[in-house]
Amino acid sequence: MILSDTDILARLRDGDLVVEPLADIDRQVQPASVDLRLGSEFLEFRRTNIPCIHPDDAGEVDDYVREGHVPDGEEFVLHPGDFVLGTTRERVEIPPDLVAHVEGRSSLGRLAVVVHATAGLADPGYEGQITLELSNLGNAPVALTPGMRISQLTFTRLTSPADRPYGADRDSKYQGQSGPQVSRIGDDPEFGGEES
């Protein structure tokens, strides 16, 4: 069951669901979602001639990424075909009985901007900012401004609370993240890392 605005507001008031800071609760809480704003930190993938990225080589991934910061009032221009990692300004805490779905806003979708490639879920128990996988599928550059509403979260109630929610007990690799985070796939057991 997807939560309505009434349910979302009640859960926010009770404090078991956290989305903060909400700058304008009347504008950000929609009929069945919460709009999230774009943060000011970005990880840009450099153009490179390497033959491929090896997921188990964190150094290789780090060498491929450049950190950027866009002050409030300035723009980040997302060019056609570009892929960058951004972040939400808001930090969330998802309770064990909910799962949050990260979705794009239709107004940006109509400009060919997508906010996630595959990571469209915030698991029960997740805490932190949300990394956005931003792409421009169109033919024209699009200016993105920190603080603009960039994505939305919908919340689905589980049939029962998760027995093993995302977090420290699972060695969850993105728990508590602040700012955009590069892939940590090399931490997965198939690459010799820990289970996450």
Specify the CATH class: Mainly Beta
Strand pairing plus helix content: what structural class?
A: mainly beta
Largest sheet: 6 strands, antiparallel
Q: List the total number of helices.
A: 4
How much of the residues is beta strand, in percent? 25-35%
CATH superfamily: Deoxyuridine triphosphatase (dUTPase)
In sequence order, what are the helices and strands, one letter per element?
A: HEHEEHEEEEHEEEEE
Principal-axes geometry comes out as: globular
Give me the CATH architecture, please. Answer: Distorted Sandwich
Helical residues, percent: 10-25%
The Cα radius of gyration reads 17 Å
Number of domains: 1
CATH topology category name: Deoxyuridine 5'-Triphosphate Nucleotidohydrolase, Chain A
How many β strands by DSSP? 12
Describe this structure in words.
With 196 residues, this protein is mainly beta. It contains 4 helices and 12 strands. The strands form 3 sheets. Strands 1, 3, 4, 6, 8 and 10 form a 6-stranded antiparallel sheet that branches.
Structure summarized in a few sentences:
This protein is mainly beta. The chain has a single domain, classed as Distorted Sandwich (Deoxyuridine 5'-Triphosphate Nucleotidohydrolase, Chain A), CATH 2.70.40.10.
SSE topology:
Blueprint: H1 5-14, E1 18-20, H2 25-28, E2 34-37, E3 41-45, H3 58-63, E4 65-69, E5 76-78, E6 83-93, E7 98-104, H4 106-109, E8 113-114, E9 121-122, E10 127-136, E11 142-144, E12 149-157
Antiparallel strand pairs: 1-6, 2-12, 3-4, 3-6, 5-11, 6-10, 7-9, 7-12, 8-10
Entry keywords:
196 residues; 4-stranded antiparallel beta sheet; Deoxyuridine 5'-Triphosphate Nucleotidohydrolase, Chain A; 6-stranded antiparallel beta sheet; mainly beta
